[in-house]
């Protein structure tokens, strides 16, 4: 057994001192993923779904969601970046890794960790839509309604959250905190150090 300190919400990989407040616990996230997966299993019954995970933020969500979804799925990943190490979007989306295969005729379900300004997803949907999928929908774990700059049609949303920068469960600040098992905000001094 490890001797690492355990925070009030369980193991926090030692990030505890940087955390300001917890928005969503591991249990709330797990329950929501099961709820989304149940709904999507009904909507896609009899169809084969191609999950497209948006790296890197959606990697934990993709992994838990694919296991919860009681349907055969295939997985592809695309890596895009618009934030770098900043806390607001540059508005410029860059493809860092494209899909490995053609999605023509497929039922594509994009999995995103968060919709903040909506710029990444708006760009991504145009890009994927031009490749001829049979259907194209989005399932996002988080959305910040007060931050949206571009309206994007999103069929499945886990949680609406306040307009604060959050980390954990795949979401990073300067590449840190993705491995935190819950979603939280950081103390202001973390940004100034
Ligand atoms: O709605 P938006 O304002 O466009 O923000 C959402 C996007 O920003 C984050 O990605 P980021 O660019 O930080 O890359 P990462 O997933 O590798 O951290 C997040 O994972 C979403 O993909
Ligand atoms: O609140 C956020 N946290 C981490 N990454 C993000 N990318 C867009 N919004 C966020
Ligand atoms: Mg990021």
From TrEMBL:
Pfam assignment, any one:
Pribosyltran
Family, as annotated? Belongs to the purine/pyrimidine phosphoribosyltransferase family.
Instruction: Give the source's domain of life in one word.
Output: Bacteria
All copies of domain Phosphoribosyltransferase, residue ranges: 26-173
The scientific name of the source species is: Klenkia marina
Q: Where in the cell is it found?
A: Cytoplasm
Q: State which pathway it belongs to.
A: Purine metabolism; IMP biosynthesis via salvage pathway; IMP from hypoxanthine: step 1/1; Purine metabolism; GMP biosynthesis via salvage pathway; GMP from guanine: step 1/1
Q: In its keyword annotation, does this UniProt entry include Cytoplasm?
A: yes
Which EC class is this protein assigned?
Answer: transferase
Q: What name has this protein been given in UniProt? A: Hypoxanthine phosphoribosyltransferase
